[in-house]
Amino acid sequence: MDEVFVAQDSIVRKIWGKADTVLFIFAGAAAEFALNKAVDWLYFTGRLPADPLGRLFSTVAYARQIIFAKKDDALKAIDQITAIHQGVEKKRGTNIPDWAYRDVLFLLIDYSIRSFELLERQLTSEEKEEVFAVFRQVGSRMQLKGLPENYREWVEMRDSHLHSDLVRSDFTDDLYRQYKKHLGPIRYRLVLQVQFKLAPAQVNKLLRLKKSFWFDPMLKLYKLSRLFKADRVLKGALLPADYKVRIMALDTI
How many helices (H) and strands (E) does the chain have? Predict the structure, then answer.
């Protein structure tokens, strides 16, 4: 039997095996991508402003592909990601900072935990350590420097990164204009509320996100709808048409 990259009974597979959890991770990533001081790298190719949802979705899709792959296939996918970034570095004539790579890895860890806890239940300390360990494997394969050794160290580094690597810039405001354009006003307002619920305090502060009274009742209604298998109807109504099929296909458990 082929060895898998992530154990079949891992909490990471449970987190990334549901479309709505992945969507919430996607929403949180969209907030931090816009604030990261290295976001100019994503503008360098022109792909992010032209198709911000597609660019962010591809990042999440790559992560999910790795999680559910056989070990050899997962390692090949990680190596492909590394090669793509090296190609961009060569074109620009300079290297992406190590901290920028770590930031992306760290936000995938953080929003995996935050999204699951918002939609499902609190994770145990052991489960959080497991989430960290899986993504650390990815970072290690990418030969990233300065990775934390355990979840406790990651918490400290994550907090430091949030206060040193994020800034609201013209790129931030442009990306949010693109989000609104591609999502439409109703979906855009919904994404802002998901981001408010998920994001660390520093992200909310920089983006000046505010709570709307209607979101908590709507979230409770959505959770209830899943008990009656009605959530696919709601997701279908809320998702952009271009991504509906791809996102619905993320449900594997």
Answer: 15, 0
Q: Burial level of 93, CB count in 10 A (0-12/13-18/19+)?
A: exposed
252 within some domain: no
Work out whether the CA dihedral 35, 236, 64, 123 comes out positive or negative.
positive
pLDDT tens string 8-36: 999 999 999 988 888 888 889 889 989 99
β-pair partners for 166: 36
The encoded tokens of residue 82 equal 């590394």
In a domain, 222, yes or no: no
Retrieve residue 190's tokens. 């919904």
| Residue 247 placed within a domain | no
CA 148 from chain center: how many Å?
Answer: 19
Alpha carbons 101 and 36: distance in angstroms, whole number: 11
pLDDT grade for 195, boundaries at 50, 70 and 90: very high
Where in the sequence is the domain holding 171, given as residue range(s)?
11-210
Q: What confidence score (pLDDT) does residue 245 get?
A: 65
Do 31 and 188 touch, CB atoms closer than 8 A? no
For 107-133, give the DSSP string.
Answer: HHHHHHHHHHHHHT-PPPHHHHHHHHH
Residue that is written with structure tokens 């619905």 in the block: 248
| Ordered alpha helix ranges (H), 68-97 | 71-92
Stretch 184-212: mean pLDDT, rounded? 93
The first and second tokens of residue 34, run together, are: 């816009």
